[in-house]
Amino acid sequence: MARTFALAPLLVALFAFPAFPVGCSSSSDDGPASGSDANVDSTSGASDSSADVITDASGDAKLDSSIADGGPDSVVVDAGDSSSDVGDSGGSGDTGDAGSAHLAPMPLISRGVPAFASSGTAKDANDASYDTNWRSTGAISAATPATLAYDLSSVPTAHRAQVVVAWYNTATYNWDHSYFAEVGYNVPGDYVVEGNPAATASSAPTTGWTALATVTGNTLHSRQHLVAFAGYNWIRLRTTKSDGSPSNADVSINLDVHDASAGATDSWIFYGDSITAFAMGTDSAGATGLTSFGQLINAGNPTSTLPKFTGNPAYYPAAEAGGIGGTKTDDALAHIDAWLTKFPGRFVCLSYGTNDVNGNPAGVATAYDNFRKIATKVIAAGKILCVPKVPWAPSTGLQANAPSLNAKIDALYTEFPQMLKGPDLYALFTGKSTLFRDDLHPNAEGIRLYREAWAQAMLAAAYK
């Protein structure tokens, strides 16, 4: 289909997101810090070469020949672990039972801790609402970075020896806005995740920072980094270049830090098309009271207008919306290798098929073949795969072909028994035309149903 709803300005109008002001009030200033601006995405500070370089936990550099498209930036390498380690007792590459008996929690440890920023309101980054965001002000450069720091000294050291740092930008629609040469809105472009051993204080340290993960040329609206944090009390995101656009060339994010003592065990990404991009973000997407996937897993949906369900308070997953409007399984197959190098976590969910088969019966066989190939790649990377049924929508072209593809997805569940079954979105939405804004895309209340269905399905499948 045409890339409907792929433009962020249109999304702002549709979802009635508040316009980002050009200026905000400033919080405490922790000042610029030294650091390399070389074109790297690693922990070593080595210069980028014509091929992407991965540095493993031992520091050995390896060429990654699987990344044919080069990706939107170089391959991230975070201190402490490689991106293929799923972090459970089975070790790297384990694809066994995903039930909670083998799923070590990854508690959120940054909620409400003292936060400090070079400008803007720092506490908006780690309050309980993902509808509020820390936004920097002023020009960003290596000399004048935008910084956001948390004092984690109150967290027991046993719960911060290794952490997952997850940041989310909700102003940018597509997970990778560069995929269709679109612009970003207040995304960190070049940045460093840093640690500092300084004691607690009324302001963030200005010296003594150590780089834990370095990224340049970023065009993604969210990232997760698994980093070794033993010996540090403070964590900071220091951005030296914004990946933005006119009037939106600063940084606007929420920043979560999770206890990852057992690895990135409870870390998720939802790849998919525009429906995923709309529905699986962290913010409420216009649905009053709707919370993030992580919050739904943790606390259920007590503020929802839908029937209530109970969460599992032992868990609070990190979860990214990896949707890109207009994409098909062809796109996912072509780029999944590169995408996975940027994801240190365990659960990879694939929500494709709508664009493959909408008005295209021949797309059923192609999508099924692509799903099989993608599944093989994801499982080989040591991840746990989850796939839902293609959702029903008012489009007659989709209704004519989606049931056939969903029958093929049933075959995938049989062929890959380690795969988690996502929600049956076709049955869930069948006949509910009032939950759509057009022939394919759910409206705000449809998004509520979609996201909460994902949480309920995964509570049953992964957190049982």
The first-level CATH class name of the domain at 8-13 and 265-461: Alpha Beta
| Main sheet: strands, sense, barrel | 5 strands, antiparallel
Number of helices: 9
CATH topology of the domain at 8-13 and 265-461: Rossmann fold
CATH H-level superfamily title of the domain at 8-13 and 265-461 = SGNH hydrolase
Q: Please report which band the strand proportion falls in: under 5%, 5-15%, 15-25%, 25-35%, 35-45% or over 45%.
A: 15-25%
What can be said about this structure in brief?
The chain is of the alpha/beta class and 464 residues long.
Task: Describe this protein's structure.
The chain has 464 residues and is α/β, with parallel strands linked by helices. The protein has helices spanning 8-15, 274-279, 293-299, 329-341, 354-357, 363-380, 396-415, 425-429, 444-461, and strands at 53-55, 61-63, 115-117, 134-135, 146-151, 162-168, 187-196, 210-215, 222-228, 234-243, 252-259, 267-272, 318-323, 347-351, 384-389, 420-424. The chain has a domain at 8-13 and 265-461: 3-Layer(aba) Sandwich (Rossmann fold). A hairpin with a 5-residue loop joins strand 1 and strand 2 (61-63). Helix 6 runs parallel beside helix 7 (396-415). 57% of the residues are buried.
